[in-house]
């Protein structure tokens, strides 16, 4: 699919409700892959240097961020588009419907999206089964990450149990597991980003990681995903927690609650997390700030407002080992993946 072809398809999809268009797009990808047609209409991604991170070998530096394929139903199809890794989720221990619709909004002039999905998913058992059923992507060396969260009705005091339940449920099929502490769409969740709360959670997760590694003979790295709305001192405090706790990886950043870049735009006052071009600079600044504290000791995956190859390069130059796409992929499609990989050659 060329950039021109994707723009035509996008213009049609953008006439529909955003969540409906999302469901149609994923459904179409899934069926095209099942019918073995997707490879016929998708140019092969450029060859790229593998990247070592978290003790894993990623086929290339470009991944898909959590939120697009929440339940892991399209892993093989997305891999066909050139992604080296796909992060599914956010997945919770128990199924939950998420927030009431409408809950997904496009701000097209700014190439942005606001979502307040609310961790809608079918639960960790379904997510793990879907990943186990995927075949082509993983056989070809693709990496699958699980982004995990707590159920909305779980009090913060019991959040650790939810994360541990997801860790156990994903362990056998996940290549790495990301702990989501930074979505703005689950009430109170970001409170777990307080340094002392994060330290306690990491301690529990690392203890369980060690136990499961001994029981299964395989080690699954643990990452934490943080918000872009962090002050410098908070970043410094969290960086120390990550270093002291032996965190395997940091993912920076999630969506923002700021509306500075989209004031006056349609839908700008909708509640939820803002992603896309308005987040580009801030996300890169947060990556650079964390890297100044972490160096190479805790690798960083950069995500947030990557709309072109130059944005990806800026994230990598700021200290990220890998990058992930979400909103940029929605606005620019598979050609963006190939553009970034071509730049890296």
Structural notes for this entry:
The chain has helices at residues 3-13, 18-34, 38-41, 75-80, 124-133, 136-139, 159-170, 195-216, 232-245, 280-294, 309-317, 327-332, 334-344; strands spanning 51-53, 56-58, 62-64, 85-91, 104-107, 112-115, 143-148, 176-180, 222-226, 249-252, 273-276, 300-303, 322-325. The longest helix is centred in the middle third of the chain and has 22 residues, at 195-216. It has 13 helices and 13 strands. It is globular. A hairpin with a 2-residue loop joins strand 1 (51-53) and strand 2. Helices cover 41% and strands 16% of the residues. Helix 8 packs parallel to helix 9. The protein is of the alpha/beta class. It has one domain (3-344): TIM Barrel (Alpha-Beta Barrel), CATH 3.20.20.70. It has an eight-stranded parallel barrel with strand order 3-4-7-8-9-10-12-13, surrounded by six helices. The mean pLDDT is 96.
What is the 3D shape?
globular
| CATH fourth-tier homologous superfamily | Aldolase class I
**Largest sheet features:** 8 strands, parallel, barrel
Question: What's the architecture, going by CATH?
Answer: Alpha-Beta Barrel
Rounded mean pLDDT score: 96
- Count the domains: 1
Strand order of the largest sheet: 3-4-7-8-9-10-12-13
The N- to C-terminal Cα distance equals 21 Å
* Uncertain runs: none
Q: Helices and strands: which structural class? A: alpha/beta
Percent strand equals 15-25%
- How much helix, percentage-wise, in residues? 40-55%
Order of helices and strands: HHHEEEHEEEHHEHEHEHEEHEHEHH
The CATH topology label is: TIM Barrel
**CATH first level: which class?**
Alpha Beta
Radius of gyration (CA) equals 18 Å
Secondary structure tally: strands = 13
Number of helices: 13
